[in-house]
Amino acid sequence: MFRYQGAAQPVLKVDNWQINRGSHVFVEGASGSGKSTLLNLLTGTLQPQSGTISLLGTSFSSLSMRKKDQFRARNIGVVFQQFNLIHYLSVAQNIEAAAYFAGRQQYFSLNAVSTLLEKLQLPKALLHQKASALSVGQQQRVAIARALINQPQLMIVDEPTSALDANARDKFMQLLLATATDSTLIFVSHDTSLAEYFSHHYTMEALNSARRDVC
Ligand SMILES: Nc1ncnc2c1ncn2[C@@H]1O[C@H](COP(=O)(O)OP(=O)(O)OP(=O)(O)O)[C@@H](O)[C@H]1O
């Protein structure tokens, strides 16, 4: 259960939610239904007031902040709604930063990044381009590359398609699913048409008994 400070009611009350390893899961919910709150709990930015969150067999919500940061960097790849690339760094440096924070810089190589960029249909020439000089579509794909560089067991993707037209959105989804084949994937969006890409679908209403209580 999670309640924002000062709020009368919890925004999220999930009785029980389990996802099998390796599954690709779509969570749909209207604006304000608690999608970002759920993802912030899953990435450890927020802490539930009661209940526990276990990820990949680890009791994630009971880890110290430092251990949570380490666990997230090593095991979770996140693609944010706004991508969160560091604009003054190059594409390669943005991706290298993710390897560095995971303590995996010894595995980082420009070759590995080039291979990822190729899979994501981005030209190699972009490697040394500043993130600020990328188109929105290119930023999205670099954000996927950054999330995948540490070969995360869990990928969390927050509504990254809202600014795209239907064609670009389909292409993005195909690239994401083709490159994240080895990861468990949790994808949240208000766009129900994306559900067709996933084997498992949930609605925030079904997950969140706090909302059912209010309705
Ligand atoms: N920092 C906060 N303090 C208090 N209430 C908050 C805070 N952040 C979100 N809320 C409230 O929690 C509810 C869920 O918000 P959340 O951002 O998780 O929804 P969402 O489904 O991600 O919405 P959107 O699709 O518009 O991004 C909303 O009613 C919102 O007003």
TrEMBL record:
Database matches in PROSITE patterns: ABC_TRANSPORTER_1, ABC_TRANSPORTER_2
GO function terms (MF aspect): ATP binding; ATP hydrolysis activity; transmembrane transporter activity
Source organism, top-level taxon: Bacteria
Keyword tags: ATP-binding, Nucleotide-binding
Pfam family, one: ABC_tran
SUPFAM superfamilies: P-loop containing nucleoside triphosphate hydrolases (SSF52540)
Keyword Transferase applies: no
Domain ABC transporter: start-end pairs: 2-214
A GO cellular-component term linked to this record: plasma membrane
Protein name as annotated: ATP-binding cassette domain-containing protein
